[in-house]
């Protein structure tokens, strides 16, 4: 039944995220490059497992039925559910990272693992918490988006591209600002699809991401040169 199925899916995604974290970073001393390679390898293995079990045809499930007219546009009720849940989740994330010890410990490990370790924080455990949290958030996103667009084994490629572009646009270490970046990117892609070609949406995300990364890299280099002087 709905409700129980969605909750089970989010919990299962969190468990999978934790398992991937153990495989990628469970051994102490694992370099970030090695962890990234293992994570990508597990992702490709997951593609094969998903095709073997469920096939390669897109799948979907029912969400909130019906639509409403807003300023002349027909908007599905499921879209309002996505907006409401996303706003609540980002509000909770802001409280988590800003007000709780675990959230501050995660931020400290992301900023400076060595300094966090000297303060008694275990970066390995915090990394596993991050993998599990990321899995749960991914599962929640899947539950919300599947009624709007059918999901197949490789649908995560486009979602990851857009998500990373939004995070780069808004800031990799500020969830609420990243949400603003995601909204800006979503509006830009919708306008490209409406006034141009829908196939160019991914190009917009990649172009924005590369442009912002180049600008930030040049600023960082300029600041380092100024500090060296």
UniProtKB/TrEMBL annotation:
Q: Which residues form a coiled coil?
A: none
Species this protein is from: Actinomadura bangladeshensis
Q: Which GO molecular-function terms appear in the entry?
A: transmembrane transporter activity
Q: Which residues cross the membrane?
A: 6-24, 36-55, 79-97, 126-145, 198-215
Pfam families membership: BPD_transp_2
Q: What is the lineage of its organism?
A: Bacteria, Bacillati, Actinomycetota, Actinomycetes, Streptosporangiales
On the tree of life, the source organism's domain of life is: Bacteria
- Keywords for the protein's UniProt record, in alphabetical order: Amino-acid transport, Cell membrane, Membrane, Transmembrane, Transmembrane helix, Transport
List GO BP terms, alphabetically: amino acid transport
GO CC, one annotated term? plasma membrane
Its localization reads:
Cell membrane
Q: For this UniProt entry, what is the primary localization, expressed as one broad class?
A: membrane
Can you name this protein? Branched-chain amino acid ABC transporter permease
Q: How does it sit in the membrane?
A: Multi-pass membrane protein
Please give the InterPro entries that the UniProt record associates with this protein: ABC_transp_permease, BCAA_transport_permease
- Tell whether Transmembrane helix is among the UniProt keywords: yes
Family membership: Belongs to the binding-protein-dependent transport system permease family. LivHM subfamily.
């Amino acid at each position: 039944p709905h409700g129980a199925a969605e909750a089970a899916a989010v919990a299962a995604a969190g468990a999978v995220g934790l398992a991937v974290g153990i495989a990628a970073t469970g051994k102490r001393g694992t370099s970030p490059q090695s962890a990234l390679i293992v994570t990508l390898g597990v992702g490709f293995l997951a593609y094969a497992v998903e095709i073997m079990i469920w096939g390669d045809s897109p799948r979907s499930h029912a969400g909130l039925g019906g639509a409403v007219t807003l300023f002349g546009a027909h908007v599905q009720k499921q879209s309002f559910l996505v907006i409401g849940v996303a706003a609540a989740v980002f509000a909770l994330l802001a409280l988590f990272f800003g007000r709780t010890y675990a959230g501050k410990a995660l931020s400290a490990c992301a900023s400076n693992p060595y300094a966090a370790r000297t303060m008694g924080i275990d970066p390995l455990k915090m990394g596993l918490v991050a993998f599990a949290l990321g899995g749960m958030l991914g599962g929640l996103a899947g539950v919300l988006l599947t009624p709007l667009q059918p999901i197949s084994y490789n649908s995560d490629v486009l979602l990851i591209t857009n998500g990373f572009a939004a995070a780069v646009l808004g800031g990799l270490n500020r969830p609420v600002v990243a949400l603003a970046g995601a909204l800006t990117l979503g509006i830009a892609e919708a306008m490209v699809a409406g006034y141009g070609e829908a196939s160019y949406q991914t190009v917009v995300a990649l172009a924005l991401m590369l442009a912002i990364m180049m600008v930030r890299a040049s600023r960082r280099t300029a600041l380092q040169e100024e500090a060296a002087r």
